[in-house]
Amino acid sequence: MEVEEAQSEVRAVFLGGFPGQLVSGALWLASAALSTWVSTRAGILSLALGGVFIFPAAVLLLKAMGRPTSLSKANPLGQLATQVAFTIPAAAPLVGAATLHRLNWFYPGFMIVVGAHYLPFVFLYGMWQFGALAIAMVFGGLLLGLYVPGPFALGGWLTGALLLVFALAGRSIATRRAVLALLG
User: Fold this and answer.
1) What is the CA radius of gyration of the chain?
2) Dihedral through CA 49, CA 50, CA 51, CA 52, nearest 10?
3) How many CB atoms lie within 10 A of CB 6?
4) Least confident piece of the model among 38-47, 70-79, 115-124
5) How far apart are CA 18 and CA 142, in angstroms?
6) For residues 170 and 75, what is the distance between their CA atoms, to the nearest angstrom?
7) Domain ranges of the chain
């Protein structure tokens, strides 16, 4: 399987990242809501623990949509996707340490980690838009962490909204590319 064909399958199966980003965006918004209206601890726990369920929830969403939920065995990019997924839990202790130092670094820290994890998606999906998402999240996290003293949940609200926008954009791009491939 050639790289372009493998990327096309990733885009088609995962709808340009739509289900994962939709679930992730909803999780970030729920976490921000809990941080805002319940407690910072509730918001922190919901994002840190809820992140484990993003991929399974995205697969359930694909199933509910009547879509395939996995790549073909011939697609070598499946292994890359698995490896990229583990970058977030591997970096989570660093976010935890930063949060212990300064509580308001929680969301900006996770913005940087999750944003950096999106960089390989540019190759995985063959979509430059993931580079834009990565840049927005990394630099947004840096700016919030270094220059914006509060409110605590601001990074959660901004990231949740950003992920929802990119979920819709990714689905649109993947759908348009699939239609063009059929026509052309």
Assistant:
1) 17
2) 70
3) 20
4) 70-79
5) 25
6) 20
7) 3-65+79-183
SS3 labels along 1-64: CCHHHHHHHHHHHCHHHHHHHHHHHHHHHHHHHHHHHCCHHHHHHHHHHHHHHHHHHHHHHHHH
What's the CA gap between 131 and 137, in Å, rounded? 10
Residue 66 has what DSSP assignment?
T
d(CA 163, CA 176): 20
**Residue that has been written with the tokens 């929830």 in this structure:** 57
Residues 6+ apart with CB under 8 A from 65: 19
173 phi and psi, to 5 degrees?
Answer: -65, -45
Mean pLDDT of 54-65: 95
Predicted confidence band of residue 19 (pLDDT cuts 50, 70, 90): very high
For tokens 């605590």, what's the residue?
Answer: 152
Query: Do 85 and 55 meet the contact criterion of CB atoms below 8 Å apart?
Result: yes
Confidence of residue 180 (pLDDT cuts 50, 70, 90): confident
pLDDT tens figures, 146-157 = 999 889 999 999
Backbone phi, then psi, for 38, in 5-degree steps? -115, -75
d(CA 62, CA 47): 22
Q: Can you tell me the mean pLDDT for 84-105?
A: 95
